[in-house]
Amino acid sequence: MDLDVLLQATASGLLIGMVYALISVGLTLIFGLMEIVNFAHGEFLMLAMYAAFWGSSLASLDPMVSLPATVGLLFLLGVLTYRGIISRILNAPMLAQIFATFGLGLFLRGLAQFFWSPDFRSVQNPFLAGLFGGSVNVGTVSLGVPQVAAALLAGVAFLGLYLFIDRSRTGLALQAVAEDRATATLMGINSDRMFALGWGLGVACVGVAGAVLATFYYIYPAVGVVFALIAYITVALGGFGSVPGALVAGLLVGLVEVVSPTLFGFSPAYKYAVVFGFYLAVVLVRPQGLFGRF
Amino acid sequence: MGPGPRPHVPGERGTAGTGERVDAEIYGGEGITVAVRRPTVAVRWEDTMRPRHALGWNVLAILGLLVPMLAAIAGGAGVSAQDATPIATPAPVVCPPDAAGAPEGGVVRVGGILPLSGTAATVGNDERAALQLAVDLVNQDRGEVPLPLAAGAGLTGLGGAQVELIFADSQGQAEVGQSEATRLIEDQQVAALFGAYNSAVTRTASAAAERAGIPFLNAESSSPDLTEQGYYWFFRTSPHDGTFSEGIYDYIESLNANQNAGIKTVSLLYEDTDFGVNSAEALTAQAQERGLTIAGEVRHATGASSLTAEVQALQQQGADVMIPSSYTTDAILTIQTARQLGYLPKTIVAQDAGYADPAFIQAVGGGAEGIATRSAFSPDIFEVKPVAGQVNELYRAVAGKDLYDVPARGFTGMLTLLDAINRACSTDPEAIHQALVETNLGEADTIMPWTGVTFDENQQNELGRGIIVQVQGGQYRTVFPQEFAVAEPIFPLAPWDQRP
């Protein structure tokens, strides 16, 4: 097998892996905080992509320009979701919690199809796709500029998230609430506000992912489903609630998906089977995932 | 061979299911059932929630339960029946005196199964508009449109009976298509079924029709073996991938002959569905007859989140021409990825589907330029066949876009079915079957580039054929065959960095 091909596959796998990681981190953040799996996560991604698309088609704003607005919008959406739905079902049975977000996801997808039609859209002439002619060559490896930018942005988002959670007082308060809600409340931390913040942050992360994804991926109401499945596997692989776990698992999933067909010479049709098989193998040894707390 | 032909047993359908289901039109019904049935389990889960590690396992278990559901259930679209227009004066028609005539209420119900949500929802909804247009032409007196049944209101053979289309959403999934087919037959008492775009759905839905003894007309699925199962009730107006594949290779041969293209090797990219696999089989079989070498084939999962590994494999094969068989999402992603990785064969000739969807051009922009696809239809036909242009005007008024391949084939198929029901002078399945067998539409009776519609012994239309269209200046232009061509084929594909 050709070394160049392997290098290309590795690079492509890492790039898409960063995007997977970024999509997953919001999910894991919310779970780590309050042990709720957000099944509307893919739909939040879809909404972020539509936000980038409409910004581009109605106001001629490149997704990179409208990125702060998209992220702000998604943050708000996260907080609203918490205030409007999640805070009301915090003490409900687990299945009620699951179906609340699951139902929200279906509702959002239906809403998107109703208002924006099921047509496939894509951002026309995004700035990143035109930069350096759309791709850069490192040796024999060709890297798409939007993909590289997406990976870099994901890296920045992870760094910011890490600094915020681990170094800021608010971040420490978040951790305290995640650790033990009752004790944190006794220490004077408003856990309700922390939950809202967690939802805002988690959904904002998917906002970053949606904005960059919109520069090189098609957009339609069910686009979230494609990535949600990967996100759940990534979160479970990295360990529920672990931010570094999401990063490592995202990269692993991306790598396994792209490199394994090249490396072992099987049909790419089986790549998802390999990804899920890999996941199974890991959780058999470490049921809590790579970095899981449980 | 599938189950053999089976005569209709009068009264065997439709009585058992009626009234058993209160409202089958609510979507996501399966999901609701799960939600209702599980609380007892939830209580047990709650009791065992601590110690904390057990929670992790429960989450995994629930993920395992929910993730496939999430993937399976697409949101949004439901079922709706169009309002019936008042019955006008019936026009005279020649019917045998013993014909059963119009059903009670003067309404003939036809079930339409389409992917109204999910990955193929764009095409599904566009076809839905075309089917409704065909029915409206029949229901209203539209003498100005020179197509069968347009003149005179309703089905004149059934005393001016109105046609009511009842749509069901298959979500593009075989099992949903089958249960929807059964529901339409049992609860809605449809006289015939129509659909279902995705070959895999057509297979299961037509099996349900076969069991129930109801005619099933398919106008847009292209898996060759759908008409080779020996089904008694299954008819197809559209050419299948065998016919279409011949068209693709005819085009490649003409490129070799006229443009000195020197195409010798072929890469096949196809999705892992009924459509993709059958298309690849037809293409492989015919490549050998044409003296072309298959350099390799790459099968991909439908609706993939990335196609990098797939495009890399194609790049390795380095064939002269790439022939993809994929739906819209994967078509878009394939070309985006090819551009990013710099994969560029001499030319790309697609097996329809996603590559013939205008959304594909819109999404990949300059990347689509020069890509050819076999199609069954092209707006260029409006110039050659004025009636097609006329129908397109009507279609644009309701759908907001031009007719293209699938809606055009759906429109034609629906008219063919209604023509047969009209000649059957009854909704008796056996009479409709007989009328379908006797179908004889001429070149002027369809809006397609066909010589007409007549069914062979497999109940496959033998007068259909495909054309090759190529994206030129952001439009599909017919480049082959000669008699429908409006532009010269562009060969080879322009390098990626020389595109807009």
Give the secondary structure arrangement, pairings included.
The complex is a heterodimer of chains A (294) and B (500).
Chain A: H1 3-34, H2 41-59, H3 67-84, H4 94-116, H5 127-130, E1 135-138, E2 141-144, H6 145-167, H7 169-179, H8 181-186, H9 191-213, H10 223-238, H11 243-264, H12 271-285
Chain B: H1 29-37, H2 39-47, H3 52-72, E1 107-114, H4 121-139, E2 162-169, H5 174-188, E3 192-195, H6 199-212, E4 216-218, E5 234-236, H7 241-258, E6 265-271, H8 274-289, E7 293-300, H9 308-317, E8 321-325, H10 328-341, E9 347-350, H11 358-364, E10 372-375, H12 381-384, H13 386-399, H14 405-424, H15 429-437, E11 467-472, E12 475-480
Parallel strand pairs in B: 1-2, 1-3, 3-4, 4-5, 6-7, 6-8, 8-9, 9-10
Antiparallel strand pairs in B: 10-11, 11-12
Helix pairs in contact in B: 4-13, 4-14, 5-6, 7-8, 9-10, 10-11, 14-15
At a glance:
The complex is a heterodimer of chains A (294) and B (500). Chain A is mainly alpha-helical and 294 residues long.
In words, what does this structure look like?
- The complex is a heterodimer of chains A (294) and B (500).
- With 294 residues, chain A is mainly α.
- Chain A is 72% helix and 3% strand.
- Chain A has a two-stranded antiparallel ribbon with strand order 1-2.
- In chain A, helix 10 crosses helix 11.
- The longest helix of chain A has 32 residues, at 3-34.
- Chain B folds into 2 domains: 1-61 and 104-234 and 383-465, Response regulator (Rossmann fold); 242-375 and 466-498, Rossmann fold.
- Chain B has 15 helices and 12 strands.
- Chain B has a 7-stranded mixed beta sheet, with helices on both faces. A 5-stranded parallel beta sheet of chain B has the order 2-1-3-4-5, sandwiched between helices.
- In chain B, helix 4 crosses helix 13, helix 7 packs across helix 8 and helix 10 (328-341) runs parallel beside helix 11 (358-364).
- The longest helix of chain B has 21 residues, at 52-72.
- The radius of gyration of chain B is 24 Å and the shape is globular.
- Mean pLDDT of chain B is 81; it is low at 1-56 and 70-92.
- Chains A and B meet through helix 1, helix 4, strand 2, helix 10 and helix 11 of A and helix 2, helix 3, helix 4, strand 7 and helix 9 of B.
